[in-house]
Backbone:
């Protein structure tokens, strides 16, 4: 039994929140074919995260691992785990991160990859993002090229987010791949994921009619 497993009791609420987020997101078709990965913070130094290849719509606690933010990652974690851990290290307010392969995010990422950003402006639903009080602000959703070297990608993402001007949406897109979305807890992260999907639907329709 690894050192990390001694945290399983403290991790129970985080595990429950990941299981629930997986159930909801899978029901929407955002985690097809065991794709995506989901995580939640346990404490300042630990998170729980889904293991590779598990059905995210029917997770059990065995499908999750507790990892320390500064630990060498266990081998059965998703290759995308470094992108989660880098976000938690960069922002202590983040309590949950949902990485989904929702088709609209993969598509919007490809369409806006050259620009490196998708701008949301004028949509009432922007207020579903924590801290947003008006449809009138311009929210930036950074877009990154997809990459299989996720350690390098995580460094690029964090450097970019730290330097982004203006207001950032609580998420980013990977072109042809999906989205990373976060919140203070699993519920808020799921609300952000749901809002992003609806906003991408609106944005896609808008881009095709104007
Ligand atoms: Zn992915």
Residues:
């Amino acid at each position: 039994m690894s050192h990390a497993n001694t945290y399983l009791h403290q991790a129970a609420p985080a595990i429950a929140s990941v299981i629930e987020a997986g159930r909801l997101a899978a029901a929407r078709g955002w985690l097809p074919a065991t794709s995506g990965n989901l995580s939640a913070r346990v404490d300042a130094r630990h998170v729980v995260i889904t293991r590779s290849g598990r059905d995210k719509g029917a997770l059990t606690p065995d499908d999750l691992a507790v990892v320390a933010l500064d630990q060498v990652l266990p081998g059965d974690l998703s290759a995308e785990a470094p992108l989660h851990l880098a976000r938690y290290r960069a922002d202590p307010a983040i309590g949950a991160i949902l990485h989904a392969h929702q088709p609209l995010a993969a598509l919007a990422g490809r369409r806006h990859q050259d620009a490196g950003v998708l701008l949301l402006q004028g949509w009432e639903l922007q207020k579903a993002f924590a801290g947003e009080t008006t449809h009138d602000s311009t929210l930036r959703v950074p877009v990154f090229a997809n990459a299989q070297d996720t350690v390098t990608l995580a460094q690029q993402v964090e450097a970019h987010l730290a330097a982004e001007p203006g207001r950032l949406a609580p998420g980013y897109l990977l072109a042809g791949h999906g989205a990373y979305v976060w919140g203070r807890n699993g519920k808020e992260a799921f609300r952000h994921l749901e809002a992003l999907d609806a906003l991408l639907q609106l944005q896609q329709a808008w881009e095709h009619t104007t």
